[in-house]
Write a structure and sequence with these properties.
Blueprint lengths: L9 H8 L6 H22 L8 E7 L5 E3 L6 E8 L5 E4 L4 E4 L4 E4 L9 E7 L8 H17 L10 E7 L2 E7 L4 H7 L8
Antiparallel strand pairs: 1-7, 2-6, 3-4, 3-7, 5-6, 8-9
Helix pairs in contact: 2-3
Length: about 190
């Protein structure tokens, strides 16, 4: 099950392929390629462009009145604290506010106490859209995966990792982002500060 919803429609992918197939297994396979490509790109970017997707930031308090959210928030859903014994307390959202277009959440009445782990659940903005460049990279990666798959005539993956577990051997194939794809995606990538 993919973690992200692909911003690229199946119809758009079929147009890029010059494919008019209505075969359900083929269309399901195309959708799985789009989902895998989306997962790979969004993971590389450390960002999600799915409008209204629900996210949870989990962090240890530092006695400050604000916290920088991992993604910009459109709305707050819940705030919970967990103490060192594992006791979960649901806090009121009325004391929280979003600032700088949802990049920060601040507490009006309290601090994010260092005695607790804080869990803030929020939704991404409903107006959030995926940039066209990112959608194009997702399409290209899905097309490469199709071309290199057995359905496309090749064998999937540029890198292969093998593992052995309980007297069984298994393999996993990976498609690495090309230098061109990395360059196209670089303006959208989140970098650690």
């Amino acid at each position: 099950m993919p973690s992200f919803t692909s911003p690229v429609s199946l119809a758009r992918f079929q147009t890029a392929l010059n494919d008019t197939s209505t075969d359900t297994p083929t269309l399901n396979y195309y959708q799985s390629l789009l989902d895998i490509a989306t997962e790979q790109v969004y993971t590389f970017l450390d960002r999600d462009f799915t409008a209204s997707a629900e996210k949870t930031d989990v962090f240890l308090g530092n006695d400050s009145e604000c916290h920088t959210l991992h993604e910009p928030a459109g709305a707050l859903v819940s705030w919970k604290t967990v103490d060192h014994e594992g006791t979960v307390v649901t806090k009121s959202l009325t004391s929280l506010a979003l600032f700088l277009r949802g990049a920060f959440v601040g507490s009006k009445d309290d601090t994010f106490s260092s005695e607790f782990e804080h869990q803030i659940t929020y939704t991404l903005p409903a107006t959030l859209t995926c940039p066209e460049t990112i959608q194009q990279v997702i399409i290209e990666i899905a097309m490469v995966m199709l071309r290199e798959s057995k359905q496309g005539g090749g064998s999937l993956g540029e890198e292969t990792a093998w593992f052995r577990e309980n007297d069984a051997t298994g393999g996993q194939h990976f498609y690495e982002l090309s230098g061109r794809h990395r360059q196209l995606l670089s303006p959208y990538r989140r970098y650690a500060i």
